[in-house]
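ok so heres the complex, two chains, lmk if somethin looks off
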Amino acid sequence: MTQENETAVMTQESGAAPDGAEFEGENLLEVNNLKMYFPVNSRGVIPRHVADVKAVDDISFFVRRGETLGVVGESGCGKTTVGRCIMQVYKVTDGEVVFEGVDLTKLSPGRMRRMRRRLQMIFQDPYSSLNPRMTAGSIIGEPIRIHNMARGRGEYMEQVEELLRVVGLNPYMRDRYPHEFSGGQRQRIGIARALAVRPSLIICDEPVSALDVSIQAQVINLLEELQEQFDLTYIFIAHDLSVVRHISDRVAVMYLGKVVEIATREELYENPLHPYTRALLSAVPIPDPLVERQRERIVLTGDVPSPIRPPSGCRFHTRCPIAIDMCSEEDPEFRNVGGDHWVACHRV
Amino acid sequence: MATETGQPVLEIKDLVTRFYTADGVVKAVDGVSYNVREGEIVGVVGESGSGKSVTALSVMRLIPPPGGRIEQGEALLDGEDMLKMSNERVLEVRGAKIAMIFQEPMTSLNPVLTIGRQLTEALETHLEMNRAAAATRAGELLEMVGIPDGRNRLNDYPHQFSGGMRQRVMIAMGLSCEPRLLIADEPTTALDVTIQAQILELMQRLNQELGTAVIIITHNLGVVARYAHWINVMYAGRIVESGPAETIFKNPRHPYTIGLLASVPRLDEPRRAKLEPIEGMPPDLMNLPGGCSFRPRCPFAIDRCAEEYPPFEPVDGSIDHMKACWVDVTTAGMHAAGSAN
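and the predicted structre for the whole thing:
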């Protein structure tokens, strides 16, 4: 964007943003019976709809204000799709995404665009998620301009510099381009961009998995400090169960488009009920040879089945070490087993 | 466990590899020495840019000219120096006596050749098998690495396999000629934890059954804890600490190793309120600081660290456990020394 353009946008009336009244409910976000099917079309002159990839298939959960909900699962389980459905990147197939009391799936594109100020996203790949032709300052400032959140150039620059400081970068770095930053610093720019519009919910999609081990801890600590400082609510999507335990208040485990278990952090890691959760936990390597060699490991056989033709009944039954006949016939109900613990398994 | 008496299969001695670029000289490997003994699994741990992969690529003679140059050192494979071999000899040895599998099973298989052809190529070249015998053997190899119905999948192409399956194919290719040494560069990084467990169990089984020595290169300390007999920790092109796996995890003595272990949350320990990261950034290999490369990030650094690179010396007079650090740091002594800084 050129200098003139930028100023033109800045001078527009900035009161238009729908700040609205502060939302008071306990659950900042409620996802009800969410389904996201991607159509598979046949090849040929006239493509025909032949099947669906059921990336997310009828899941429900909520996120309380100020908490971090971890979402774990293997690649292809639908965890990233859930995040994108909440952001309304896709038009969902069915279900509700109620954010601050408003069902986002029913909003017009214009209202949704204004609503996006309240919910932001941090991406996995700090290389591809920043425009290489924009400076760090303009990357962070873009959402401020789009949502008219600064009056005039002075206030805009002030906000950009403050954001850089908040994420631990130096304000003089605003004129640098992404390639001049390391992976960890780029992720900080991504975080600053998400914070720029003062959101209440940030969806973090694998925010540290592309970073070096020694840098991961820096970014996790930063995310936790920011959460406290700005009253943020996080959905933290990751495949690293040790990191998820560290940062989450509650954890949801996904398998092949379904949530199979949700519980508080302590409950999930100390008393996992679903056989898939148990297998996942036992597969996480622990950096200690003595502990490792004594640990029982549940090694699951086979791969995750295709989400185009998911197994009948419980989707995990093809790899489950304790499956019985019933599991291949009936889809287990996702039920509360006391407290905040929910699980979908016939054998529990 | 570690076969203490095993003969060295590979001896790397004072290896230096540099990349000459338009922007400057990258000191990727700066004097690395280590051994791998028969039947041993060695873990090489370090972050991106630590030189762990470049060391392996140098041994394999896969450093791309003209920018990349192996400047000095030896890599003795059963006593024969890989670095001084003729190109013809390298082609004979590579695949037959020493094999390497790569991180990205998607890009390291040829997408337009069938899995069968990619497996039989090495068998026909190195073991001089005929087509039929090679195909039979290829089928056996696929089943050995746990690909169900492997014999009937020889005509499939890589895209018809999942990520975990492709990594198994890579392992089957690596093992096809029963090499003395298999180098696995981040073999599980692109894979999910449940698949990662399968692959590591498989590599351990093959190590035990066939006696193949294995180097596992990884940035994840957890991955090697269960399987490695020996650990080398690398930072900025050098080995900073080395020793038997139990010792390195129980009694780490280099500040970088201590920092790495402290910075990852562990599932078997109570959750800590805060993680303890290693401050700062990985070093710029074109502009390494004088003295110890870790000094700018080290909480224990003293004046001497800026002046001279510390020698690689035994820890507490041990013959196995070595480290390169001027300061005597222990996990327990961390806070005392840290606050004094």
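quick notes: Residues 1-21 of chain A have pLDDT under 50 and may be disordered. thats all i got rn
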